[in-house]
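User: Here's a chain of 362 residues. Predict its fold as tokens.
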Amino acid sequence: MARGFGLTLNDPYYNSDFDIDTVDIDDIEVDWFQKMPEVNFELGDEPETDDGGSRSDVVAWASAAKPSGSTSAKVDLQRITWYLFGFLDHYLHTAGENGLHIHEFWGGENHELPTFAGLAMYDALKLAVFGLIVDGFKLEVSDGAMDVNIDWLYGNETYDILGENEDFEEPAELIDSRIPVRFYDVHVYLNKDTQGNWLKPGSTQTSWSMEGNNNHDQDGTLGLGSRFPQERPQAGKRNISLSLATTLSRRSYKDVMDARYGKVDAKSPDKCRILKIPMRLVVIQCENPDQQLIIEFPECTLKSEFDLKGADRVEATLNLQTLGNGEVTLADETTKVNTDMYVKLINKVPEMGSVEEVDDSP
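Assistant: Prediction complete.
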């Protein structure tokens, strides 16, 4: 028995005209499996009723199904490849040296995003979910390990029950996937100098978070002839918000007030302008410094807020909202793209769509 969740890019549901009867749960082999504290999938099909003018309902019928789910886990630099591939709509792979691979992701204008199949294990209950799409993507880190929370939409599901003496066969462990990203692996940069060098904020950062949403139109997948989704949901406007917490002190007064007033060196709120700056997050793992995660948000609006509560330290929060006008140069140092979010991930995972599982157990 096991508790957790696993993913694969091989999604038979989207290769069989959305026919759940043609999908065999025993054929689902996930690329990885991870023990998780929170795994939830619901069909979203509350029965519809009608009272016919009576004080009580007199008839009920099955409603349209709008399957959705959520998972929560610790971030490692291997499995996050799948989440980023699902959240952003542009992907480029480059083979590196010494078994390393460079994965680049960035946001563009495509309305169709990749789909996955997943296996959720609830002890002896094995739930297979198909047509999984990343709708919401959240990263957050403070004084422990970094967490990733995913909001999913999906098309349909099926299940099986393990026998009394049967164990769930987990796939081989991904290389270095047992090491989570910790707060001391994370470095945040805010703005650049005139030479284009990234700058660190003036004071200690106590937490960072990013929350993105693809705003898929699930209603548009429902139509006559079936109460389940009949096609891939279209991605809508992509919203990405960022938050950086710090302590209000002499090291941070100016940065916080510049953000509050919308202009550098302003002494009062600007008449019409807001402050726009880039942000960068860099993850360099202590044990494996050659594997890195770099996330850039090339242009963001910036605001600040702070409040006083007794004798406690005054916490200030910088809130950023991404814009899609910023320019980023890709790893080839030549290609330039305009985007709201760019990711460069260096790890041991081969190109997405051709993942090879390697066992690094002792």
